[in-house]
């Protein structure tokens, strides 16, 4: 560990692993440390024994659940948008060459008035869905046609609206879209976690609607893809990328302290009596308790099932969004499911995770509506985590801290955080057009 590095990265969450991979490809000398014995941090996928050890120390899983190694259970529920930023990062870094296999998620669903509906994925489904009434379908169709045609550089497509000033609420009103249709579009398609977006400039929501449509068009069945063997594969492929280009990884390395010079800039990291000198440090919030602020909590309930979820058409995988208005909340509730098809569980077993932003002193009660849709549940693990964000941007001390993973079931906010950290760390704009690096010898 002793030596001099351009950057020391703390924690092997996905954000940190992508940064270390990018920096290593840029020919920077990288040291990557993690206190855990496994890759992924909060974005890890654990075998059954490790999951029980994490949540119920000393207790072994029932033998009836099958072999531990046949499980790869995510600690956070996330899918990838098929044309989203994370998929683009996977391609431009070249990690897709590392034999990663992605599977399409079977369907996207939304909860309305006590029932679960499939989010329409084709023109035929839009025409026949009972999710929207006859007039609603026409209004929604007209709005989505406008969104499809919208080009920020072509004023002819703007229909006299400046989307950097006009709110999304005003756009809905212009097209006659209201009530449940707004719930459906804003939360199941644009994937907003709250209704705050209604009073904000519409451009972000229009881009979100376009992203969903583009991702859906990629494969036709749903806009989401998921890596075989779980999300833990993602940080591992970026760790491999970093190592291929000369980066050094060390697990089970607790950090004693961050070392600063007389000007207050970071100059090293101490672990087990050794100091690695460095010019910058990147890490997750757990390594910098004095440099982050708490911005809320997220509850996640990991459930093991021996049956598919009936309300989601018995699919082997799904995403279900329960819009906040439907259950009298401020934040959406998310339910996502995978199964033995994705190697997240053995034959006949299914994994479902329910998550939301905590609003009360009884978080588990807040997700009851989602859990009830999964019954019967073989076992469940309740996971309440504080959410943090950095107090400063890192320009003063060269310490760049990631944000906690939010409750949403997609990686767009994580990708935004990666780009932000990269740009602050390097002082360069992130190049989305960069070609994948040449294959390096392993």
UniProtKB/TrEMBL annotation:
Family indicated by similarity: Belongs to the Rab GDI family.
InterPro entries cross-referenced by the UniProt entry: FAD/NAD-bd_sf (IPR036188), GDP_dissociation_inhibitor (IPR018203), RabGDI (IPR000806)
One BP annotation, GO: small GTPase-mediated signal transduction
Organism field: Acrasis kona
Name listed for the protein in its UniProt record: Rab GDP dissociation inhibitor
GO MF terms held by the record: Rab GDP-dissociation inhibitor activity
Coiled coil regions, renumbered to chain: none
GO CC, any one term: cytoplasm
Origin superkingdom: Eukaryota
Signal peptide: none
Pfam family, one: GDI
